[in-house]
Amino acid sequence: MVRRTALRDGLVDIDGARIAEATEQLRHRGRATLHDRLHRVRMAGGLAVQAGLAAGLAYLISHKLLGNPQPVFAPISAVGTLAASVGQRFRRTVELIVGVGVGVAVGDLLIYLLGTGAWQLGLVVTVAILLTIFAGASVAIVIQAAATAVLIVTLSPSTQNLEIPRFVDAFLGGGIALLVTAVLLPLNPLRVINRAARPALDLLAAQLDATADGLRNRNRAAIQGALERLRNNKEELATLGEAIEGAKETATLSPARWHRRDELTHYAEAADPIDRAMRNSGTLIRRSVTLIEDEEPVPDPMPDAIGHLAESVRLLKHEFAAGEEPEKARERSLRAVSEAGRAYGAGVGFSGSVVVAQIRTTASDLLVASGIEQEEANRWIRTAFGEQERPVGEPAEPGETPKPPTAPPVG
């Protein structure tokens, strides 16, 4: 009643505005969640088809050709090789075999000495895990040894001669998985990487844009929100790194994809500078928050420079996906540095000078990601930044590199 009376008296409905904002955020989060889930499905679609084909073939060969009446281990091994080790399937197959060997040896020995039962099962699993850890085995071998020991102890009383089929099925499953990925159904490695790179680059571009807008409006909350969202980028970077490793393996194993090796090398070399660009952008955004808190000046070219960085990231993503030389992305990075030079010349505070330095560093990372050598990228950055970094009256260095092509005017 009090609230309705206040509204009749002409006061602002603060609660209504807050509720509307929260509702809009929830609606946006729901759309984003659906989009993320669909993207994950598209990313995993090829792998799911590969795993289904490998499991079916492993079952068929083990059952029909080898006469195994219960071919359980072969499809499990095939799926485990495919799903758990993108980019390391040769290694996973070896780990699979080693883990099976340890599990069979430990299980058979303890069954022979102690018999079967609940406490024997617990002891077998414990010994298998401790033995593989003592030997310095990987987590995959430890898990495989323990799982095999469980199968040996629980199935041996009802299934005779289980050990040899387990070895054969492990070999068969791993081999079928490699055959599917290399020959029968090799994925397009560039398409895999493009899909994996999109979330990381979109995240970086969006938060740089949010930071630029926050500086123009002196909106600390918006910049802080961009910083928090950028900090949660580990999943995107891990997905990109895994996709690159998987694509390199596909290009190595599959004759149909050998012609993609040079392009994959370019992508692989871009992964580290993209990671550095993420980190340096995080420092840039964090200092932008401090800049607003300390009420330092924000020259107009400063947010423009950050906006150019965001556009450079988007252009890099587009030109990589199209298989083009990323010239537009390079030009936009240099435009960002040029605007940062203008901002520095107009006068900035302490945090503002750090923001300018991070714009330069991030632009250098993006140039390296585009295929430019680090030393050459640094020369381009110095040239694009202009005379602001040189003390007044100091002459230019002899033999200084000519200025590279400038970016087109921004509309």
From TrEMBL:
What is the membrane topology here?
Multi-pass membrane protein
Q: Does the keyword Nucleotide-binding apply?
A: no
Q: Which residues are in the Integral membrane bound transporter domain?
A: 57-180
Transmembrane portions of the chain: 41-62, 68-87, 94-115, 127-155, 167-187
Q: Which residues form a coiled coil?
A: 220-250
- Pro residues: bias regions: 401-411
Where is region (Disordered) located?
A: 384-411
Protein's cellular compartments? Membrane
Q: What is this protein called?
A: FUSC family protein
Provide the taxonomic classification: Bacteria, Bacillati, Actinomycetota, Actinomycetes, Micromonosporales
